[in-house]
Design goal:
With about 70 residues, the chain is mainly beta. It contains no helices and seven strands. The strands form two sheets. Strands 2, 3, 5, 6 and 7 form a five-stranded antiparallel sheet that branches. A two-stranded antiparallel ribbon has the order 1-4.
Length: about 70
Amino acid sequence: MGRNSIRLKIAQEHDYLYTTHFIGAPGLLATVHGLAPDYHPRGGEGYVRAKVFSSNGGVAWTQPMFL
């Protein structure tokens, strides 16, 4: 987590594509494609967690980061 952003680094597997949903108390905050997604909190999210989707069907979650 950077000072003003939450950043992920996704390890590339094969030629899979990755989509990350950043989720907070109000619901879906942002959708970002690629291996280095980031989110800049605006305030009021309560928490932020990421759900990463791989084009091979895999899904991974981060633990919530409380703001």
